[in-house]
Here is the input.
Amino acid sequence: MNKTLAFAAAAGLALCIAAPALAALPVGAPAPDFKSTVALAGKDTAFDLAAARKKGPVVLYFFPAAFTAGCTAEAHEFAEATADFNKAGATIVGMTAGNIDRIAEFSKVECRDKFAVGAASADVIKAYDVANATRAGMTGRVSYVIGKDGKVAYVHNDPNFAGHVSGALAAVQKMK
Here is the structure.
């Protein structure tokens, strides 16, 4: 890894670790339903949280911005684990307020056509309490597992991407 890239990665990780935690919705809280246009395999598609919940648990994860180091690594982890989530009956959808003009490309390249990602509206950001505390106009990194009953079953609220996928998968598998 060249020195510039190594420095940028370290600085980005330091920013994520130093960022204050978000409030986020607590376990047991009702998860606000919403509808959105998301990208799956580079193509726009409709997403309806209420409809998705009827099929099984939904992993709704918020990330700061497409094509950043931590968000790309997290997307790769979710893509690699998609078959395990599907086996447990779960749907994965990622939402962001950063680099939203590149969501379709991100869904294809970094999400590897495995799950949908979309632009989080101001209403969704507020409802899920995921505004980035250090970067205005962006979402923080929070993963939710939402049960068929519409309640938050699991929350992982950490600016570092590590642990979001494994924690969400373990929560989904316990629900089965």
Notes: The radius of gyration is 15 Å. The domain at 3-175 is CATH 3.40.30.10 (Glutaredoxin).
